[in-house]
Request: fold
Amino acid sequence: SQTIHQWPATLVQPVGSPLSLECTVEGTSNPNLYWYRQAAGRGLQLLFYSVGIGQISSEVPQNLSASRPQDRQFILSSKKLLLSDSGFYLCAWSAITGDSPLHFGNGTRLTVT
Amino acid sequence: AQSVTQLGSHVSVSEGALVLLRCNYSSSVPPYLFWYVQYPNQGLQLLLKYTTGATLVKGINGFEAEFKKSETSFHLTKPSAHMSDAAEYFCAVSDQAGTALIFGKGTTLSVSS
Reply:
């Protein structure tokens, strides 16, 4: 069966520090991969998605970036965090067909102080 | 472009009462529709999905939803609420390309005894 791992579960970082969140998927090949951010009362905002290694689409311009160095690895990064980057970050994967649901990781609670 | 509107950011019901969470979508192509549930500090879990075929879709935990094309709606129902149903619920739409899901802002369901 497929599993998705996302870490760390919680993170407290000062403003201006770098960020690296990692997500890996097991049990499937060539998945679509996604990063969403969830802020209170604002639902889920799609940040990045990837349909293959090295292929990243950005939905929202900001100081975050994403990379996919391996088929089942998806990394969210920032060189300098802002207070507004605080939130709950969710990684997800789906099969490549349009009717496939997203399968989410357990999320990372990021607090920028 | 697709969009999702969830009517009511907060719904309160008594245990044993009917649960009705409303979702309307906008899509220029036949949509794929999903309902997810999120418990505090966790990722999202798929409740049910509509792709094609029968418009009444049954999901986990006794929930079901009906796709009504004429009303562009996909409301989520459960005949009898349980305390364990208290959570946040998200409706989402995807086009047939399946690039990414677009989520509504969520509805928090409270269940009182």
